[in-house]
UniProtKB/TrEMBL annotation:
<protein>
    <recommendedName>
        <fullName>VOC domain-containing protein</fullName>
    </recommendedName>
</protein>
<dbReference type="InterPro" id="IPR037523">
    <property type="entry name" value="VOC_core"/>
</dbReference>
<dbReference type="InterPro" id="IPR029068">
    <property type="entry name" value="Glyas_Bleomycin-R_OHBP_Dase"/>
</dbReference>
<feature type="domain" description="VOC">
    <location>
        <begin position="2"/>
        <end position="116"/>
    </location>
</feature>
Amino acid sequence: MKLEQIQIQTNNILKTTAFYQDVLELPIIEKSENSVCIQAGNSVLKFVENTNFNSIYHFAFNIPENKLEEAIEWCKNKVDVIVIEDQNVIANFENWNAHAVYFYDNNGNLLEFIARHDLNNSQTAAFNSKSILNISEIGIVNENPLELGNQLIAKHNLNFFSKNENTEAFAAIGDDEGLLIMVRPNRNWYPTQTPSENNKTEVKLEINGNNIDLKF
């Protein structure tokens, strides 16, 4: 499943544009007075300005499965990498056969670079912004994640993520390439103490040649 575009909110479009363009070095492909579209590998990250917005999102980018250490070094020159515990910044998701590192953008959004070792996407070139492959996860906050997941499956012929233990508190739809991460409100976004909140989110998916537009 491919996350072709996610659309989320920011309360400062100028600072957001500057962060993604100047800090993460991602190309701006479209810009207006109150929105910006950023190319992130094969995905588009769109921000729409809402000056009253005061919350955060969580989303992740897939990176080559052999480049996490290089990605961490690249990040350290640009952002504060989040420590998981005991000075370790790498999260190990054994069931998903993946490792990840976390950091914040200018909005306080929780961003993640994740290396999924079951994807055949290793690279030899040194890590830089062009190594970001796509948006691989977007967090969706809902009172009933499992129920929402079943509704999406029934309506759009999607599937729960086979590597995840899907529960009433946490469920994932999709695959290693693209995931909807569905959690209950006030569940802390790992590895932080920041509680999840239900924020307006739009997602354009592509799966098996079918395009799906979702609004949450």
